[in-house]
TrEMBL record:
<comment type="similarity">
    <text>Belongs to the short-chain dehydrogenases/reductases (SDR) family.</text>
</comment>
<dbReference type="InterPro" id="IPR036291">
    <property type="entry name" value="NAD(P)-bd_dom_sf"/>
</dbReference>
<dbReference type="InterPro" id="IPR002347">
    <property type="entry name" value="SDR_fam"/>
</dbReference>
<dbReference type="Pfam" id="PF13561">
    <property type="entry name" value="adh_short_C2"/>
</dbReference>
<keyword id="KW-0560">Oxidoreductase</keyword>
<protein>
    <submittedName>
        <fullName>SDR family oxidoreductase</fullName>
    </submittedName>
</protein>
<feature type="domain" description="Ketoreductase">
    <location>
        <begin position="9"/>
        <end position="192"/>
    </location>
</feature>
<dbReference type="InterPro" id="IPR057326">
    <property type="entry name" value="KR_dom"/>
</dbReference>
Length: 262
């Protein structure tokens, strides 16, 4: 459908070396965009960039540490210089290990907020001058179902992703009407991080059994949602967090964390 096409557009995808980021970069390229792929893994992003070129699109691979402000600023400037413009920014960064609340120390909270909120917001801020020159600018942040679902052990990650969700609404308010800002909130997705868990038949059955659609998601499920939010098909959508989680109403991996005792 023409509304989902991105011909003549340039997309920047962070965290694009594997998983959701790589699948998204390829989906945007298949829709017609030229794509810049960023991550800390040169070999991985170069492989993704080569796949994009094989689709007939331009691609640039830029090794970038999302935690380094100067590196991020330099990467954004390079994308604009080499590909001529920036119309779409997709931030795929974050993560945090679960742990009991009583073991969630200050540093864990700070690190989770830094990884899940600061890094992505920084990328968007650096890209705003370029996005503002586009007539169809879109930002898509990758959040998590943990940002709105409640379960034991996820305080640092869930609180950070909830903050990211509201940051999306705030950025949308600040950047209206020129730049749309939305997020996708995935559930359990079969990336490298989950493959170890899913390799255990009992754990896999638990994940599937606690998911209303009875399966684990794949990166392409999220990439399709990101394509929608990046394209003219969603031109009347901003400030929204789209859950793509198989219908979850609670985390599908309950952690065996006992009650606090007196």
């Amino acid at each position: 459908m023409p509304l989902f096409r991105l011909d003549g557009r340039v997309a920047l995808v962070s965290g694009a070396g594997r998983g959701i980021g790589a699948a998204t970069a390829l989906a945007l390229a298949e829709a017609g965009a030229d794509v810049a792929v960023l991550s800390r893994t040169p070999d991985q992003i170069e492989a993704v960039a080569q796949q994009i070129r094989e689709l007939g699109r331009r691609a640039v691979a830029i090794p970038t540490d999302a935690g380094d402000p100067e590196a991020v600023a330099g990467a954004v400037a390079r994308v604009a210089e080499e590909l001529g413009r920036i119309d779409v920014v997709v931030s795929v960064t974050g993560g945090s290990m679960p742990r009991p609340f009583t073991n969630t120390h200050d540093e864990a909270l700070r690190k989770s907020f830094e990884n899940n909120v600061v890094h992505g917001v920084r990328l968007v801020r650096e890209a705003v001058p370029h996005l503002a020159r586009s007539d169809a600018a879109s930002v898509v942040m990758v959040s998590s179902s943990t940002g709105h679902l409640v379960g034991r052990g996820y305080l640092a990650y869930g609180a950070a992703k909830a903050s990211l969700d509201h940051a999306v609404r705030m950025m949308a308010a600040d950047l209206n009407p020129r730049i749309r800002v939305n997020a996708v909130a995935p559930g359990a997705i079969l990336t490298e991080a989950l493959e170890v868990v899913a390799a255990d038949p009992q754990m896999k059955a638990t994940l599937e059994g606690h998911t209303p659609l009875r399966r684990i998601g794949v990166p392409e499920d999220i990439a399709a949602a990101i394509l929608y939010l990046s394209s003219p098909a969603s031109s009347y959508v901003t400030g929204q967090v789209l859950a793509v989680d198989g219908g979850l109403v609670a985390p599908n991996m309950p952690l065996p964390i006992p009650d606090v005792e007196a």
